[in-house]
Structures are given as C-alpha cells and as structure tokens.
Design goal:
Layout: E1 2-5, E2 12-16, H1 20-24, H2 26-37, E3 53-59, E4 65-70, E5 76-77, E6 82-84, E7 96-98, E8 104-105, E9 110-114, E10 133-142, E11 145-154, E12 162-165, E13 173-176, E14 190-191, E15 196-199, E16 205-208, E17 211-212, E18 216-219, E19 226-228, E20 233-236, E21 244-251, E22 256-265
Amino acid sequence: MFTPVKSKSRFASVKMGTDHNAVRSKAGFLVFALVAGLGLLNPAAASANGASIVINEVDCHGNDWVELFNRSSKSVDISDWILTDKKFSTKNLLHLYKFPAGTSLASHARLVVQQTGVGVLQLPFGISCAKGGVVRLGQPISPTSITLIDELAVPIVPAHVTYGRAVDGSDIKEFTVPTKRVKNKTALPVALGVQSKVCPKHRTCIISLRTTQTTKFQLVKKQSGVSITSTGKLTIAASQLGTKTYQIKLINTVGSRVIKFRVTSK
C-alpha cells in the first residue's frame, strides 16, 4: 500500500512501500500487475503542470460527476492522471479512474467524468451527499510515487446544488448551482453593487440592499436604533448616524453569507 513521504514540493506526495515477500507471492504479483495496468506505475506521465488543473465542481445527487478545470494559459496533458474518492492505495482499484492517453485540457477548458459517462469518461465511484467525502486528483511522478495535485473535501450537500469553486478555478469553495461544462455559479446569496451609502445628517436613513439569491436578512449584531427587514430594508435612526460598518447576514435555503456595509453621514 502507499505510505506518505516528505516532499519539498508544494504538493503532497505518496510513495509505495516495498515488501519483497509480498512481491514474490502470487497475490502480491497480481496487485502489482493491476496497478501497473491502471497506469499508476507509469513514469512517463509525470509533468510540471499539476498546479494548473483543479477539481472545479462535484455533483453527488445520483449519476455523480466530477468536473476538472484548467486555470492556466496553456494546454495541459493529463494522460494517466487519476481520480479517486479514496487514499491512493492498491486496495481501492475499483475507486480509481485513469485518464486515457492523449487526454488534455486546453486553457480555461473543462472536462467532466460521470458515472454514466460514455467509454473512457465513465466514473467508477460516487460521493455521498448525506455523508460527504473527498475527491482527489493525482499524477504519477515516478514508478513508485504519485503527486496529489488537488483535492476537494465535499461536505453534506443539500438537494438541487453541487459543491465546488464559486468562480472557475478560484480558491473559494462553496455550494454551487449545477453548471456542468459551463461557468461556475455560487448557490449562496450574493450582494450587488457598492456596499456603502452616504446618508444626510439629522434624519433617519433608509437603505434598500441589493442582492440576489437571498430570502432573508439579519443584523449580525443587534444595535439600538438600527434594524433590517427580512426583505433587506436597512433603517438607521438619525441618532446613530456617523461612520459605521454593519455586518449583515444574507440567508437562503442553501446557506448564508456575511457582508460588511459601510454607512457615513454628511
């Protein structure tokens, strides 16, 4: 099986331990042959382009799929790379997907592997929406080592949404609207426009917040003379005006997001 090894690389690496007795045995030979057949022992697949490819979005609601995204400005060859929902191990062969020879992603391109995919694009595993899981992308770097290129920890996922990067290739990961093979879109509330307002002095200030995908608004901290309705109308009494920043929680059926709204007066 694979055991961790220290690496100076920015990526985590795993290395296959050597057990000479097991290799000599018939069972050990069969495991070795299966792994070799999957391409895990193919040093020719190594490349310096791993940081370019990320797991972009995962759908776990039956007929599961995993989407990769190339966030670089160049095409990347991912021949013999692997996807798995387990740790890299010879014991989880049914949970390993190997990208066939000749597979590449153009700059800012997407590639989807699905459980009911056709031919070489058929995913052999799935993720539980009720329990969550981890999807890992690996690249062979030597006959005995695989570099972990990217991994996406999928939480418990509500109905009708996926989990991935809020924007294609970004480091922000959250619930997303299912967008297989097209631009990613967050499923959480989003604030629109400038998050600030200048209010006249000596009079009550009423501000209608502009958002999308929001069903409810709340002040994170209750304050005297300040209120907000469930539809996003922020009211500030004249006595409370000045230069202040209010934290406001935007809520929908999927989750919530806290924004900062700055109010000044003159």
